[in-house]
């Protein structure tokens, strides 16, 4: 899920007066915090999609376990019944495989979102570094008389 805020440019933070730099750093930190909130909301939505996919897979697996598809005490199945059962089983296995692909894709998306959040945190840590104040040359105190 694209948020449109991944490309925040912070090169302007290093120019200008010290008070301007501090103000821009604070603005950038607030912007990064908003980006983190957006990513976190994306992660929640991805988790919800993942839970729905897991539920759907569980439904499919339960259908495989359903008693109506078992042999029900019959020692052998007719050729038609066997073909029908195997065809049904193949379809269910394909559906489960598709659901697992979906779950995998969602996991990859969630990992990408977490990686983006970590990158923003690293950027925030760098912004947190104090602006170095230019020091005036000090004149030594006069020696006591």
Question: Could you characterize what this model shows?
Answer:
By secondary structure, this protein is mainly α. The protein has a domain at 16-67 and 79-127. It has two helices and no strands. Helix 1 (18-65) runs antiparallel to helix 2 (79-128). The longest helix has 50 residues, at 79-128. The N and C termini lie far apart (73 Å).
How are the SSEs placed, and which strands pair?
Layout: H1 18-65, H2 79-128
Enumerate the spans where pLDDT stays under 50 for 5 or more consecutive residues: 1-5
Question: How many β-strand runs?
Answer: 0
For the sheet with most strands, the description reads: none
**Radius of gyration using CA atoms only:** 30 Å
General shape: rod-shaped
Secondary structure class reads mainly alpha
Which key features would you list for this structure?
single chain; 145 residues; mainly alpha; 2 helices; 0% strand; disordered N terminus
Overview in brief:
The protein is built from 2 helices and no strands.
């Amino acid at each position: 899920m694209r948020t449109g805020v991944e490309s925040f440019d912070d090169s302007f933070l290093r120019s200008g007066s010290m008070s301007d730099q501090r103000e821009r750093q604070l603005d950038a930190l607030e912007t990064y915090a908003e980006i983190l909130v957006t990513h976190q909301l994306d992660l929640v939505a991805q988790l919800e999609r993942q839970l729905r996919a897991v539920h759907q897979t569980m439904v499919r697996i339960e259908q495989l376990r359903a008693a109506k598809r078992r042999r029900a005490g019959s020692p052998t199945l007719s050729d038609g019944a066997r073909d029908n059962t195997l065809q049904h089983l193949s379809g269910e296995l394909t559906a489960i495989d598709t659901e697992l692909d979906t779950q995998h894709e969602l996991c990859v998306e969630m990992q990408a979102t977490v990686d983006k959040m970590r990158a923003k945190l690293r950027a925030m840590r760098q912004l947190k570094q104090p602006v170095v104040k230019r020091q005036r040359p000090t004149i030594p105190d006069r020696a006591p008389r």
